[in-house]
Input
Amino acid sequence: MKRRDFLHKAIPAGVMLPSLVSGFSFRAFSADSPIMQSLLLPVTETDHVFVIIQLNGGNDGLNMVVPIENFNNYVNARSNIYIPEKSLLALNGKVGLHPAMTGLSSLYNEGKLKVVQSVGYPQPSYSHFRATDIWMSASDSNTEVNSGWAGRYLNYEYPNFPNGYPNATMTDPLAIQIGSSTSLTLQGPAVSMGMSISNTSNFYNLINGVQDPSPNTPAGKELSFIRMVSQQTQKYATVIKAAANNTVQQVSYPTKNSLGDQLKIVARLIKGGLKTRIYMVNYGGFDTHSAQVDSVDNTKGNHANLLGNVSDAIKAFQDDLKFLGVEDRVVGMTFSEFGRRIKSNGSDGTDHGSAAPLFVFGKNVIGGVLGDTPTIPVTATVNDNLPFQYDFRSIYSTILANWLCVNDLDLQQIMLKNFQILPLVNAGGCKKAVNLSGDQLISNYPNPFVTSTVITFQTAGGHTLIQIMDTSGRVLANLTDKEYTAGTYTVVFDGSSLPAGVYYARLQNMAVQQVRPMLKVR
Amino acid sequence: MERRSHLSSNIPSSSQKAPFTAPPPNGGLAQYTGVWTENEVIHLLKRTMFGAARADINYFKGLTMQQSVDELLNPIAPLPDPPVKEYATPTNTTNSDGNIALGSSWVLDPNTDGTVNFYRQQSFKKWWMGVMVNQDRSIREKMTLFWHNHFSTETTVISNAQYIFKHHLLLRTYALGNFKALTRAVTIDPAMLVYLNGERNTKTAPDENYGRELQELFCCGKGPDSKYTEADVKAAAQVLSGWKNNSATITSSFDSTRHLTTDKTFSAFYNNTVIKGRTGATAGDQELDDFLNMIFATTEVAKYICRRLYRWFVYYDIDDAVETNIISPLADILRLNNYEIKPVLNTLLKSEHFFDVLARGCQIKSPVDLVVNMCREFNVAFQPSTDYLSNYGLYNYLVSSATNMQQSIGDPPDVSGWKAYYQAPQFYEVWINSDTLPKRNQFTDTMVQTGYTFNSKKMIVDGAEFAKTLPNPGDPNKLIDDICKIIFRIDISAASKTQLKTDILLGGQSTDFYWTDAWNLFISAPANVSNTTTVKNRIRDLLKYFMDLAEYQLA
Output
């Protein structure tokens, strides 16, 4: 491969900055640095990849996976927007897929699609913001957790990030999100574990070396200069460009489909050799309070277009992964912050609801429909919602355990509790990756602990702070907060008065910070 | 050439090769008569103070441009109280300073112990950072830093912290005063006598260090018309021989027994002036006066210092037009006013040239400007002044952050000051490289995400509190516009704003009222933890994104 040549030759001139905004700002490395040299080592086998598709707005699950059992009750509840039974795409006979989702129907028939019924959680929130935070942080409905489930996983898999990254075993971004900023999903206990590519056109500007225009003024001159330096110092810009250029051919994707545009980039980067473990993409517009369906033909209209685009995009992505020979390595899922109300409203739409089906897709997925067809009351009222059958955190826990190969002991530290493991993916291919752990500046022993644990930290000298935080980010104690000479020290954390659960020890030493998760058990 | 037409006709539409040549600002020194909107106020504030704080924008918007500049040039706030002892009395020293209580000032307490002086130097730097962060509504802090860059000295060389503070007080006192008088005071200032060896310059062992830099760096410069000679350097050293320091009294004095009493002859550049050799206790003062009168009689001094001021307040690129239309007339004003600085600043800061659209946004923030500007524009909260222990610790993080970005207050790289103000052709661009730019981003990331905690007190950019000071934070479009207006001088595109609104403030939703509802609930029910978290985190993410953009580095 040509990565070596590329790295030695390519100093990007006039490539733009805002296309790459890292979740955390990274130190740059010259081509001679040991870290950049490590990029020149042979590429090792890449492990499993997980792709998260967020459907913003609250997707109407009942019109996506339509109950054939109880069909009359469904029609009664949604007389103005129901999808006619004969138009449904067959799944297992008990439910049918929206007619716009032909792509997913064919994936289902190939055994590459799992439909999980009625995913939710107790005491659901009907607020977009709050429900999204719950899904991303994997918190209970009534607690605040200020890190994301995937961020906690990445903090476990790649401890001490960003200190000591990139390194010989992890040369690439840990996670990539297409969007202006990395979401809560990728937020670790202290820093964001991911980087974002602000939009698809900026991605192409990056790999094509295009810079945003700036005015021909003194200010424009300085702006161009700063952007140029910024481009040269974006730690991961080079590897992303190289990966993109490694993939020369892809299948055709649907046009005018922004989800497809994003997934096309994801496939390109996976094939191109990035070891990035998590990708996250977004597709919005699901907040269908009105005009959800075409007033003449309920199988058409706004929601049908959205579902059609989701289906076409995922189908093209899956075909592309197969074409590129990386189908074995990739599993994806869709999620939305909530489903919608059983009963439709008077504006041919639906209001905020609770549980809804979601999709898990990929060659290694155990195909089929999981769960019972949701029960719909004979006469649904405006307050009726679907109860959940599966906690959304069971989906995450299963993916972590069976696809990303997290062992049982560590799973609780990431998910904060124990959740049911579901038959979603074939666990046989799970191989735990061996990674360098970066520069470990803070650790504790024992972990898990029952009453107290000894925290060992390394300071470069000067003001040093060790504080204990809970999962909501509240500071519970400052164990030390003073000047030190450089060296390694210990402090004891007595957690005897605290409930069992996950706590974080945070080191702050001038410009450096690092967070260590600790598990208190009974 | 008509630069304005050049500008409007030549906005590049696609990939622009950087760097490219851009014309320097237009217009002369005639008073600016254009509009006086928030845009002009922000420009004036970003250049004359550290950042444009919302309260200052509101204040100056209510005045005229002339009144605003007048007020900035005439500080009414008293000089700040001196730094206090905030460090533990060092033990195992030759001269521990246990006589100074915590919270009392050490600046008049003579002490030559190395450890004590090290602590005091740090105390001085933290204090200075605090003064800048809490600056009065005037140009004084920007001018104090200007003089520190001009009469560059290093604490690591001077060592004696009492001298260091005395020198600093001199710069601060003369910040808007008379350049010639300041030069005279600096010449026999104890810190400068240490830094450039004046205290070791005697008739038997002449030391030319200060005599050279006075001409090369402080007064005449290295311009094409600055034609002092090596002989002038030697003669200057002779004039300046005999001064020495007394660390016990923290003063300097003239010792006639160490002074060379012969006549000193200068070159044609100084009209072959002969300074008569004097004897006795007043010889040093008399010869120094003759010497400075001679130097300040040249036309080069005024031009040199006006170029320095121009590069500090406007832009670094001085082409023939700027030299002719700006520098020369400013130098005339300076000489006409016997080297009073204020009339020069008054003319420059009220000029068409200063407010020209080409002059806006073209400064790359110095590290100190970046750090202090961020604290002021976002109203970062510190502790009450009684809690100086916490505040000094927090200021220390700012000092050390700016140092990591290559600007250590009190310690410029050498006697020439920071390269950004003299190193052609890069000038300001010296501040930005592959090491410092990521550090700038990391600093703003930290301040907006986790903040910095010292003594259990946290210093953080509280974006939601900042948003409350804006006119309409419940409207996501206005919120973004109003933030951009303050922190950017080159606005980001409408498409970017829409995308940021959708991705960050609306969390992917398509209707603005989701943000409006969340904001209104945040105001009416701040105890609603989940909503408050939502609002705070979204503004935090927005500010982090903004501050990572290249545009944020400009002022």
